[in-house]
């Protein structure tokens, strides 16, 4: 959208990459272009160059589903609460033109990574729409109550993909041990997001883990303890992308769980959508 290159698109087609969303609609705007390949392989990342926009961003295609689930409209105020490294913020700006996008990160090192990512992909003329903040997401609700129309909480998690595709068993064991601690943080982030959301606004919670404790249990806890939020059905989105992604069947209608499998190696990615009343 911001650095369109017909040469790059032709090159991708030559390498047997194809558009993930071939029919533009309200759910898949033409400006949001994602190319995928059915054959396994790696595509080189572009290096950061001052004053020059990158032509593409590499991410797991399942990550786009969290942005699609938000259904952002032009002019809305959007918060990406745990934004680094920045892929979902970039996808948000590809999807629509928000009146404000606040891309927040808590960790100082990741905050600078986030800023560099946005500067690498977003024209300077549009940076005025973006606020890059260094805040604890758990405090944003108290600092900015009822400010946002849409909020994405792509929460820190045990990141199953990083060890599902790794032979490092020690790292896998450490991730599993951290899960009980993470769910408490995830609940705190969601409570903060609900405070920061205006009545009638929507939030999407996402993780890249298969852990029930970090996914279903977190959302069920919020629904049981917060009387001002309701679950939002995601089955229309599931149906529209079911040819490209493999989904778990044992989840509720306000949840999606993308499972990687042969030929569809996207995920894992858990997504749930809530509405504040």
Automatic annotation (TrEMBL):
S-adenosyl-L-methionine binds at residues 82-88, 105, 136, 154. InterPro entries: MeTrfase_RsmB-F_NOP2_cat, MeTrfase_RsmB-F_NOP2_dom, RCMT, SAM-dependent_MTases_sf. The keyword Transcription regulation does not apply. One of its GO terms (cellular component) is mitochondrial large ribosomal subunit. GO terms for molecular function: RNA binding; RNA methyltransferase activity. It comes from the Eukaryota. GO terms for biological process: rRNA methylation. Keywords: Methyltransferase, Mitochondrion, RNA-binding, S-adenosyl-L-methionine, Transferase. Pfam families: Methyltr_RsmB-F. It is found in: Mitochondrion. Belongs to the class I-like SAM-binding methyltransferase superfamily. RsmB/NOP family. This is NOP2/Sun RNA methyltransferase 3. It comes from Laticauda laticaudata (Blue-ringed sea krait). The lineage of its organism: Eukaryota, Metazoa, Chordata, Craniata, Vertebrata.
